[in-house]
Amino acid sequence: MNRKSKIWLAATSLIILSMVLGACAPATPEPVEPAVTEVERIVTLIVEGEPIIVTVTPPPPEEPTPVPPVDRTGAWLDTVVFIEEPSADAAVTRLEVGDIDVYAYTVGNPEVAARVAAAPALKSFRSFGSYNELTFNPAGPVFEGTGKLNPFAVPRIREAMNILIDRSYITQEIMGGLGAPRWHGFNNASNDYAMLADVAKALEREYAYDFDRAYDIIAEEMEALGASLVDGIWNFEGEPVEIILLIRTEDERREIGDYVGNQLEEAGFVAVRDYKTSGEASPIWISGDPNDGLFHIYTGGWITTVVPRDLADNFEFFYTPRGIPWPLWLAYTPVPEFDEIAQRLDTADFTTLEERRELMARAMELALEDSVRIWLADRAAIAPMRNEVMIGADLYGSVAGSNIWSYTLKREGEIGGSMTVAMPGMLTEPWNPFDGSNWIYDMMLIRGSAERALNPDPYTGLWWPQRIERGEVIIQEGLPVGKTLDWVSLEFAPEIQVPDDAWVDWDAEEQVFITSGELYPEGRTALRKSTVYYEEDLFDKVKWHDGSSFSIADIVFNMITKFDRAKEESAIYDDAKVGPFGSFMATLRGIRIASEDPLVIETWSDYWTLDAELLVDTWWPSFTSLSFAQGTGGWHNTTLGIMAEAKELAAFSSAKAEELEVEWMSYIAGPTIEILAEQLEEAHEAGYIPYENTLGNYITGAEAQARWDNLANWYDARGHFWLGTGVYFLERAFPVEKTVIFRRFLDHPDPADKWDRFAEPMMAEIELDGPGRVTIGDEAVFEVYVEFQGEPYLLDDLVGVKFILFDASGELAASGDAEAIEDGYFEVVLPADLTADLEAGSNLLEVVVISKMVAVPSADSMSFVTAD
Question: Which end of the chain has fewer CB atoms surrounding its CB within 10 Å, N or C?
Fold first, then answer.
């Protein structure tokens, strides 16, 4: 997995320029968190208020068997134990001695990375999807909880923070060069940055570091708030203005927080540095009321877990109250123009790429003016592991964000056995399938217990079938949609009619779907129709972890709950769902089950994106907005939470839990387990069928009773209610001890090697060569060599090689395509008339290689002097 050191440096220090030119090859971000190693461990549990000592000893795993492969389904390993290790340096030591096998963290510390590179027993996977930012608390301008001033309630002060912070200092001095300055709501190494490079560069110059200018803006706004300078310190109502920085301690964000505090002190504020781990900070910035005034700034970290094909929805997620149902997000109040543009981009409310570009460009400007968060740096990072470990990691999401880690994790040449995976934090927030924890490390575990109908390619971001046979997409003529993979077909039509019997809405009182004919008797059209064809033996072979057979009711239940939680008439109405539901309904045009067995579902929508592979709606109950956003579940175990929330005993979302003053629901541990157990007893006794007016058409009384029997047996054996259909099931989670045990699910139907083909990304290795001195007015030719593992990169596997030239003044002088000469070899030709326009001095030539095999480009650069 290691690439040449030269390419490593190019991909890190030049990542901001790696997609400066448009790429022809066309996910929800998650917050980043930062021991005991034996599988057997002594833990203290609290049972009915009393501590008891328990020895947790997993059954002995099957002895690892040497290849050749045997007939095995599901996971390669028998057991995976997850533990917490906050220190990356300590984790490397534990890896070297074999105490742990994988450190599922994007390590950006250059000293730690150097240790890994020098360790004979270790290797690493490099990724490009994590990034750092500052999250502001916009409540106020006077906090209700403390009566103190919050300057960051003023958008212009937040905007000024962009130029108060020196991003180059952060990336070079704090991150040791393993990062690139970032100003915008999408990754520098992305198609969207490439498309909007001219807009991005202009804004980056406008918001470049300028302390004096930032201070002047802040001073003007502080005086307007009624504050005044006293001996160089801002005072409000007779007291110094304190800025509470909630600073994460596990990584470079500690130093970033200290630096930001220093800058604020220079600007006249009193910086209060509140150092906290992820678990300590989470109740304040995620579940706490921003009006309490317990923080002003949080040192945020995120990761894009799937190689992004389209990041237009990031504005909706990061800047509007519809982004995520947390109290902080609900305090966001973007100006109407920004709010509208964000929603239009989220719902693909445009018809051409040029219109999309215009919306994106304006959103970039408005995002910087709003600045409820300011972006600091894209991180180039590694995930260290032992040499014998095989795992399918994601170029953006790394190991922790990979959607296929559970299918591929094994020791090379072995079958069975166990591994220990360490991560900086875990079990930070409650797990529930609707609105539980969104932390990257919790989500790694959740993904390992679940599965999707489609899995993302870890190198290109396109989707591949996991539970479906094929898909069909019909698009209105004129929309620029294409396809790459054979499992999906793409057609164009002048008009796409929605049939009268398609479901378009939900009656929460009668608990039935409303059809298009009922709501739109005049008829309706859509921009897109997709049809998903599930595997013919789906209901025979796929089982939930409690032994229940997957059924069409699980799919319909997912459909219902997307609507139900946003309806005021519903017993589980959640005000935090109204905004996202509005976005959902803005594009939905209809749903119809065309066949129940084999299952075929048709969807009509006005949402579209550039890739047909991303437009097949599956309705599979996992990782889907509004309902199963943070996990997966069957209709039966998820119904327990619905029953509890309807009685106001607990709530799925942190926002509603705060509103009702009840527990945020957890399906794996804690006080809500007893609440869910009480609902199970009630449902079991009654043979309960939720939403019976609709689901009664898909669930018989005998099927319902069998589900409740299985779940009761599961709870008796496991003590929790977390179910999935993935290759591993959750044996037990210990939130206090920060330990989770996964076991291989023996009834998983797929061959263990199904996803093994994603072994290593074909990252291009580049060498740019050419003259160091060019005579003004003469032609100059530069050579570009492109390889993978020492062999020429095939021209058929490349989109192309782009170049960009900056002149001696730092201005863009030229850009274009390098000329393909043969496999692995290109030339950049600067004609005489171009060099004639260059001034004497040092110029910078950069090249970007864009591959069909991976969505992350590779870059290299060189300087040359022009002279007469």
Answer: C
| CA–CA separation, 302 and 304 (whole Å) | 7
**Pairing, β 468-476 against β 488-493:** parallel
Asked if residues 634 and 729 have their Cβ atoms less than 8 Å apart, the reply is: no
pTM for the predicted model, two decimal places: 0.77
Which residues fall within 8 angstroms of residue 286, CB to CB, at 6 or more apart?
31, 326, 327, 328, 429, 654
- Two tokens, residue 430: 């409650």
- The string of pLDDT tens digits covering residues 837-857 is 999 999 999 888 888 888 777
Check residues 149 and 111 and name the one with the higher pLDDT: 149
Q: How many other C-beta atoms can be found within 10 angstroms of the C-beta atom of residue 709?
A: 14
Tell me the backbone φ, ψ of residue 423, rounded to 5 degrees: -150, 160
552: left (phi over 0), alpha (psi -120 to 50) or beta: alpha
CB 189 within 8 A of CB 378: yes
DSSP state for residue 141 in the 8-state scheme: S
What percent of the chain shows pLDDT beyond 90?
73
Pairing of strands 588-596, 599-605: antiparallel
Structure tokens at 813: 């002088």
pLDDT-based confidence at residue 219 (cuts at 50, 70, 90): very high
Q: Are 805 and 814 in contact (CB under 8 A)?
A: yes
Residue 421 bridge partners (DSSP):
82, 102
- Residue 329 pLDDT greater than 50, yes or no: yes
Exposure on the CB side of residue 350, measured as CA atoms within 13 A: 22
Read off φ and ψ for residue 243, nearest 5 degrees: -115, 115
Mean pLDDT for the stretch of residues 321-328: 89
Q: How far is CA 297 from the centre of its chain?
A: 22
Check: CB of residue 787 under 8 Å from CB of residue 797: no
Question: Cα angle at 350 between 346 and 352, to 5 degrees?
Answer: 125
Structure tokens at 680: 């199970």
What is the SS3 assignment for 686?
helix
Residue type for 568, please?
Answer: E
Spatial neighbors of 295 by CB under 8 A, at least 6 apart, are 137, 244, 245, 246, 274, 284, 285
Residue 648 predicted with pLDDT over 50: yes
Tracing tokens 């990031």 back to the chain, one arrives at 314
What pLDDT score was predicted for residue 250? 84
Closest to 736 measured CA to CA, from 10, 37, 42, 2: 42
Alpha-carbon distance of 599 to 536, in angstroms, equals: 7
**C-alpha torsion 8→14→17→22, nearest 10:** -10
Show the tokens assigned to 179: 């990062």
Residue 99 has pLDDT above 50, yes or no: yes
**Tokens coding 587:** 């594009």
| Mean pLDDT score of the chain | 89
Contact 325, 160 (CB under 8 A): no
3-state secondary structure of 81: strand
Look at residue 179 and tell me whether its pLDDT is greater than 70. Answer: yes
